[in-house]
Every structure is written in C-alpha cells, then in structure tokens.
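Lab notes, practical 5.
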Amino acid sequence: MIRKTTILVSCFLLFQVTQVAGQSTELLKKASVDLRNLFISMRDTNDYQHRVYLSAKAEVLLDSLLSKPESFQFPFDTLKNVITCMYSDDKLCRIINWNIPNPDATYKYYGYIQHYNKKEKIVTTTKLIDNHQLIQNPERATVKANTWFGALYYEIIPTRISRKEVVYVLLGWEGYSLNATRKIIDVVYFTGGKPTFGKDIFEISKNAQKRVIFTYNYRAKMRLSWDRNLGMIVFDRLEKIPTLPQTMEGNMAPSMIVDALDWDGSAWKIKQGIELTPPTGKKKKRSKPYPY
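Output from the prediction step:
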C-alpha cells in the first residue's frame, strides 16, 4: 500500500513539473514574438525618444524572462536577424545584445549575458550596463557588468587558458563617432557565474593588453573575424588616409594587408602579413575548431 502511494505521489509531482515546464515554454514563445515586434518597431522608427521607450519595454520583458533558468535553453529564434542572440560553441555562454543610435552619431549598447555552470547545473543571468564612453584607457581596463565597455557583438570564440578555465573572446562593432567606426576584440570570463571583461591575453605589441580596439573611417569596411581554415582571428591592417588630416578621428582605413591573432596556449599573438587563401594547386585545409 505504501509503495503504491509513493508511486502515485511521484507521478503527481512529475505531472506538475511537466505542466509547469509546458506553461513556461508557452510563455517564452509568446514573449519571444512580443520581443521581435518591439525590436522591429524600434528599428523602423526615426523618433529617438520612442526608440528609447521601446528599448526600455524590451528590457523589462527580458528582465523577467531571463530570470527563469529555463530561458537559457530557449533559442529565441524570432530574434534572429533582428538583434544579437547567440550561444558560444560550447553552449555554456549566451549573449543577447542590441544598440540604439544617439542623435550625436554615437550609440548606446544594451545586453544580457548568461552562463551555465555545467558541474553545478546553475544558470546565471547578468544585465550589462554600457559605460564605454567613460572608460579611460580601455585597452588596459578590466570592467564588470555595471561598467561594461559596450559593443554590438557578432562572434564568440571560446579559448582554453588552463585545464580548468575557458574564457570567451568577443568580436564586436562600435559606431564610435560622426567620422569613425570601431571594431573591438574583448574577452569575458566568469567567476561564480558573474562576468568580468578584459584580460591580459592579447599581444599586439610588446605589452599584453586586455582588449583590442581598431578605429577607422566611417565610410570604410574592416574585416575582423574568425578564420576557420587558419584557426586564427584575422583582420585588415589599418593605414593612414593621406588625403585626411593626420589628427582627424577616423583617418585610418583598411590596407591590402591582412594580419591575425594566433592562440599559442597562453596568449593571442600577432602574426603579420598572412595569406588567407592557400597557394594554387594545394588543397584547402580542414576547418579548425575554436581553441578550447
């Protein structure tokens, strides 16, 4: 009799858990559609104040949704091609990220970062507060979520720095000013699920730096991406534009030379003047995984 009662209780509890999970999924699905509509309206309006209002509504909704642990597994497919919503290759980190153009041609950035602790099975969600315009010497600065160096991210590169630790290199874009655009290489790592941005793992010159910033003319297009054939972060080398004043912001543009950052197990080190395509007659190398 006791055994039968135990089985009945277990079945009832399982039914309740399943029912709650189903309700949560339906809530996330509906909210995902609402978010898409908000972000599309935000993109389509030219009214700055209305755009800020819509962004604030999206934040309120995301604050609620992302506080639920099950939100980490929900893909938010409706947000693809509307804002950044991407997982790292190891599926332990996710970034949800967007921006708003300001009237002075700069941008305000918004974001959430989620981290999954595989061992403890805990999801931690952290809201990011943009502070990039106030950070002094950003290539040397370590910042927390409430003083985030805001950018619009488009790629996450998991990087193993020790047997027990993986950090996440972030490639991003910043609409810097009226005359200049920036590309950013940042890095985030987690302590107790909480993010810290900036780490001395980039060796561009003699001294290691915590992030890499490229500033170039707003009319130009600069390559900065992970190359799966080389297994490196590749980028266009910037050179001065001779027809513009030397002191002008945005007086740099991509040259015909491509440089790269190569992971050596302890740091991302500069490799200059690399060849992106294999020599004629040689087979293309197999795709290389991220270094983790």
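Observations recorded by the TA: Confidence is low (pLDDT under 50) at residues 2-21. The longest strand covers residues 180-191.
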